[in-house]
Amino acid sequence: MYDELESVIASFRHLQELDLDYTHSRLQLPVPFSRRQWMAYGYTVPSEAAAIAKKDGVRVDIHGAGIEIVHPEFTIDYDYGPSGESDCFDAWRLALHRHRCRGLPMPVEGQLEIRGWLDAAAEDGIVIALPDSPCFVHPGYRSTWK
């Protein structure tokens, strides 16, 4: 169980970090200090960032507490954590990522299985559950984006 969870987290975090570099360096979107601040930022991408993304062939979908990026080299969907954590993940996002990596058709399956793994890993100190959130972080895969 932990080997597969570790593999999914490592793969997800790699793509998440690629997106964080793209989103915050290339598109110059602000790094949120909280999930609430990201949500208040709005559901639209500023026109300058939208023009860059279009030129790069990238689709940007800001939603709720997160973002989905469809880049020519990767696709990732994630939420920011309650305190603006840019390196967190939840069971749904990991299940979606694993599903896409396997090239499976919709619907996404395995969310409950992964949630069980995350809960067990949190009990064993492998991942950290973020308070007041469905999100977790892995101490071995922290982001440079704060």
UniProtKB/TrEMBL annotation:
Record-linked InterPro entries: DUF6896
Pfam families associated with the record: DUF6896
Ranges of residues in domain DUF6896: 7-130
Protein name: DUF6896 domain-containing protein
Species name: Blastopirellula marina
